[in-house]
Design goal:
By secondary structure, this protein is of the alpha+beta class. It has nine helices and 14 strands. A ten-stranded antiparallel β-sheet has the order 1-3-4-5-2-10-13-12-11-9. Strands 6-7 form a two-stranded antiparallel sheet. Strands 8-14 form a two-stranded parallel sheet. A hairpin with a 4-residue loop joins strand 12 and strand 13. Helix 5 runs antiparallel to helix 8. The protein starts with 12 loop residues before the first helix and ends with a helix. Pfam families: 4HBT. Belongs to the acyl coenzyme A hydrolase family.
Length: 438
């Protein structure tokens, strides 16, 4: 199976026992609406859009509660931030409609929204100050490191349980590991694992702020913490090796050159009584069972209404992920000609916040294919109608698997402003990283 076998060996044994405890106590677990309600209470956010300016002004006074250095904050354990949350699709049928897709399974975009909210609440639980109902910290999603799935189908009529805790802490950032399980025959079985990175900022969301250090208690927790450190180093390496900073390797250049030679249009032309084979660099032909990369694009536009705002009155990161995923899925669906299934989400960097009222432009493109796999890149940018400027907010990477083998995607341009060959190599790298994980 292409889907990774979800295991719990990375979890502390205590948390693993809690995860495998069956259905006991589910009815008393908070649900996703309570998660969002708790977040509003922690920040002191207004539920009324007209009052948001005043609510944000009131947060300025919380500056005095910020730690001057990390050493001033009490250390926390992994179990201090551990949360379990129920999504009662089985026991509360009235909430199913919001999560249902046309294939009678759960909309994965909605799951992305829930993971984003839960990740923030877990971090607020880790940094909670006793006797302080409101947090001086603005905690926001910086990066979705990876989400790997081990089930093709998420059923719309069975309860879902989310669990998670802070797994690594820097000075102003926190890694959160979350797991999603679904109830079948009285037991919860794994569906996906997710790793998010959150950053803490001051009450006005302008400057970095210190967070409580994390102290592992068991050998298993030591292992998880070390893995968090390795993940950070991997992210730095991956960023350093970006095609924007470093030229393609010799092997990658050979791949691109082979594709280039395969697409040259060779033809016979008579010249002075003899046949001479001439090749034009301009004249290109598409190899059999292939599609030009530039023909795989789908685009979308979203007006960012106040309804989609987060507790800091910017557009909710989970909403951006849902919209990008849905466009990515549609891109893979139209390319492969059959229903695609999500295998992995990785390396979503939140480069800048999206303001309420923005015009959000999304562009999905197939950038790499292999057998049944389709690697899709979705570029997200905001358009400022006053300045007429476009600014990138996110780049999303999704790996899908199609029911049938798909055509090969072929880059046509090798230079210019948007060289498709670089997108192809970037997609190939992300796909290789995903396959290594699963």
């Amino acid at each position: 199976s292409a889907f990774r076998l979800c295991t719990m060996r990375k979890l502390p044994s205590l948390l693993a026992r809690m995860l495998t405890s069956g259905t006991g106590g589910s009815s008393t677990l908070p649900d996703m609406s309570e998660v969002r309600s708790r977040l509003r209470d922690i920040v002191g956010a207004s539920t009324n859009w007209r009052d948001h300016v005043q609510a944000m002004q009131e947060r300025k006074a919380l500056h005095t509660l910020l730690a001057k250095q990390q050493e001033d904050l009490p250390p926390r354990r992994m179990k201090d931030s551990y949360l379990e949350v129920i999504l009662p699709l089985g026991s509360q049928p009235e909430i199913r409609e919001k999560y249902l897709n046309v294939h009678n399974s759960v909309r994965f975009g909605r799951i992305l929204e829930d993971l984003d909210s839960l990740g923030v609440l877990i971090c607020y639980t880790h940094t909670k100050q006793e006797m302080q109902p409101r947090s001086p910290l603005s905690i926001v999603t910086a990066l979705v490191d990876k989400i790997n799935l081990c089930k093709k189908i998420i059923y719309p009529d069975c309860d879902i349980k989310f669990t998670g805790n802070v797994s690594w802490v820097g000075r102003t950032s926190m890694e959160v590991k979350m797991h999603m399980l679904q109830l079948h025959d009285g037991d919860y079985s794994p569906v996906l694992d997710a790793t998010f990175v959150m950053v803490a900022r001051d009450p006005e969301n302008k400057r970095p702020a210190f967070v409580n250090p994390l102290v592992p208690e068991t050998p298993e927790e030591e292992e998880i913490f070390k893995q968090g450190e390795l993940n950070k180093l991997k992210r730095i390496d991956f960023s350093t090796a970006s095609l924007l900073k470093m030229a393609p390797t010799a092997e990658e250049r050979n791949v691109i050159h082979d594709i280039f030679l395969n697409t040259l249009d060779t033809r016979q032309e008579g010249k002075r009584g003899g046949d001479l084979k001439t090749v034009s660099f301009r004249s290109r032909k598409l190899p059999p069972n292939s599609v030009w990369m530039e023909d795989t694009k789908l685009k979308g536009l979203q007006i960012c209404h106040p309804q989609e705002r987060n507790i800091f009155n910017r557009i909710f990161g989970g909403f951006l992920m849902r919209k990008a995923f849905e466009l990515g899925w549609a891109t893979a669906c139209s390319y492969g000609g059959s229903r695609p299934f999500i295998v992995s989400v990785d390396d979503i960097m939140f480069q800048r916040p999206v303001e309420v009222g923005s015009l959000l432009l999304l562009s999905g493109q197939v950038c790499y294919t292999e057998k049944n796999y389709i690697q899709v890149r979705v570029h997200s940018e905001v358009y400022d109608a006053d300045t007429r400027e476009h600014q990138t907010t996110n780049i999303f990477h999704f790996t899908f698997i199609s029911e049938n083998e798909v055509p090969r995607v072929v880059p046509k341009t090798y230079g210019g402003k948007y060289p498709k060959s670089m997108l192809y190599l970037d997609g190939k790298r992300h796909f290789a990283a995903t396959m290594k994980e699963i």
